[in-house]
């Protein structure tokens, strides 16, 4: 079930094509948890160079996709509405399997801790129920347009 589509997502986070990676939000508990979806297609621009003949979604872009889903969770929290969330740190990233064209990434983000304008989320990207990537991400939230 889609509770947020691409247009609503782009109204919330600053990412645009070709680097807006969230297709829709399946579930959302503001300030607590989000489940979002990224449909990985052969048309993604990064597949032209990563790697010809053996297309694999770059690990850094999977982390970016998780960070975008986390941004939606964070910015749906009442205290952060109308602000911008920035990725501050990546901890304990564990890359367990390749992500390829045709895969559907299910992104689950859990809020672990937040204080003032800083917080930590636990993230998992899965394909067909198997974990592709798990990582703890730290975020910083600022007024839109402020320098971090």
Automatic annotation (TrEMBL):
One of its GO terms (molecular function) is (3R)-hydroxyacyl-[acyl-carrier-protein] dehydratase activity. The active site is at residue 50. Keywords: Cytoplasm, Lipid A biosynthesis, Lipid biosynthesis, Lipid metabolism, Lyase. It comes from the Bacteria. It holds the Pfam family FabA. Its main location: cytoplasm. CDD domains: FabZ. GO terms for cellular component: cytoplasm; membrane. It is found in: Cytoplasm. One of its GO terms (biological process) is fatty acid biosynthetic process. The keyword GTP-binding does not apply. Coiled coil: none annotated. It catalyses: a (3R)-hydroxyacyl-[ACP] = a (2E)-enoyl-[ACP] + H2O. InterPro entries: FabA_FabZ, FabZ, HotDog_dom_sf. Belongs to the thioester dehydratase family. FabZ subfamily. Involved in unsaturated fatty acids biosynthesis. Catalyzes the dehydration of short chain beta-hydroxyacyl-ACPs and long chain saturated and unsaturated beta-hydroxyacyl-ACPs. HAMAP family: FabZ. This is 3-hydroxyacyl-[acyl-carrier-protein] dehydratase FabZ. The lineage of its organism: Bacteria, Bacillati, Bacillota, Bacilli, Lactobacillales. The gene is fabA.
